[in-house]
Write a structure and sequence with these properties.
This protein is α/β, with parallel strands linked by helices. It is built from 10 helices and 16 strands. The strands form 4 sheets. An 8-stranded mixed β-sheet has the order 1-2-4-3-5-16-6-15, sandwiched between helices. Strands 10-12-8-13 form a 4-stranded antiparallel β-sheet, covered by helices on one side. α3 links the parallel β3 and β4. The two termini are 18 Å apart.
């Protein structure tokens, strides 16, 4: 089944919404303009309910099908898009580039929001399904755990959501193609902050100092041994120390050093093992160097795990839209996604929709590919019509 003809007709409107949102990027939970734009469109479409303020600034629309779902059938499915942008200076020079310095839609959430709005418009017009389609527009995916905030505000129970589906654009995946897999598809992301307190002094007299730079270097090196020597080679883990700050003069051994980094894992077991080993390694370095080392280990988003039955269903729908040859099994990605919280709360699946040969996500020259609109929007529509058959 190719793209939905009506979606092709709607493409100019969806593109216009996308570019409007692109010009007005907002960060984390401060997505007031975007949320208002979404809520206004949903009311215009005739959604049966439009709720605002979930998870602070999230928006939910409920669209009822032509009839209630039958006994034993799925009654309610949720479709989720994210609305927030990134603190990046845009470098695309597009006519619809960001009007707000230091902010841009560098991850395609403008496209995600517009495609789901397009699907909501079509579904509200046709209602060719039985049960409820719940469209979820979420703030603060980029580090703020907006999905978790919406869930804690009662998202799943209030609207009776039984299954939930998410989608993200994928640079490097051809437009008109999809990529998906069962099981872990994106990593858990944890943070570590390390403060080292040594004994500063003159660079010419290191023997009476405790060199915080040397201690920090030992910590960085020792942490890498966790992945190479504590983790099964057939499992995946990443430990990246990306900030190392110490000293202000070439001839002074600094008293303190600070390290910050990120940790990515694909299973709860490996996640727990890495956390345990990080504490042990840091403690060991402190003991052998005599430095005081304070470690703050903060768990972030959990692993994004696609449920088997829902992934099989989503794959079938994607094949109907794109053709079997254009739906691929993706390897797990070590990036993170807070849709993971929704997949912990309800069964569902997360899929990638091709964005073509574009700059990568979080790059200042990235731009969502408007040619992907008809494919992603058609996927949402057919997902609802097949999950809730009339």
């Amino acid at each position: 089944m190719p793209i939905v003809n009506r979606v092709a007709d709607l493409q100019p409107d969806i593109q216009a919404w996308r570019r409007d949102i692109h010009q007005h990027p907002e960060l984390l939970y401060d997505v007031h303009r975007t949320a208002a734009f979404v809520a206004d469109r949903l009311r215009e479409f005739g959604c049966d309910e439009v709720a605002t303020g979930l998870g602070r600034t999230g928006v939910v629309g409920v669209i009822k099908g032509k009839k209630p779902a039958g006994k034993g059938d799925i009654k309610v499915i949720g479709l989720r898009a994210d609305m927030d942008a990134l603190p990046i200076e845009e470098a695309t020079n597009l006519p619809y580039a960001s009007r707000h310095p230091g902010k841009m839609h560098a991850c395609g959430h403008d496209g995600h929001t517009a495609m789901l709005l397009g699907a909501a418009r079509y579904l509200a017009e046709t209602r060719n399904f039985a049960g409820d389609a719940v469209v979820i527009f979420q703030p603060a995916e980029e580090g703020g755990a907006g999905a978790d905030a919406m869930i804690k505000d009662g998202l799943m129970d209030r609207f009776g959501i039984e299954q939930v589906y998410g989608m993200h654009n994928g640079p490097g995946i051809p437009v008109g193609s999809f990529a998906i897999r069962t099981g872990p598809i994106m990593a858990a992301t944890d943070e570590l902050d390390i403060k080292i307190t040594g004994l500063g002094g003159h660079a010419a007299r290191p023997h009476i100092c405790i060199d915080s730079v040397l201690v920090g270097a030992q910590v960085v090196t020792a942490l890498q041994s966790i992945v190479s020597r504590s983790i099964d080679p057939l499992e995946s883990a990443v430990i990246s120390v990306c900030e190392f700050q110490a000293g202000h003069a070439r001839n002074v051994i600094p008293q303190t050093a600070e390290l910050r980094g990120t940790i990515r894992t694909l299973t709860p077991e490996v996640r727990a093992l890495v956390e345990k080993r990080v504490h042990e390694v840091v403690s060991g370095v402190a003991q052998i160097t005599g430095a005081k080392i304070d470690l703050t280990y903060k768990r972030g988003y959990p692993v994004t795990v696609n449920h088997a039955s829902q992934t099989e269903f989503a794959t079938r729908i994607a094949r109907e839209i794109a053709g079997e040859a254009n739906v691929h099994e993706t390897p797990p990605l070590m990036g993170a996604e807070d849709f993971s919280f929704m997949l912990e709360a309800r069964p569902g699946a997360f899929i990638f929709c091709g964005n073509g040969d574009t700059a990568g996500l979080h790059h200042p020259e990235y731009n969502f590919n408007d040619e992907a609109i008809v494919h992603g929007t058609s996927y949402w529509i057919k997902l609802v019509e097949n999950a809730l058959p009339a």
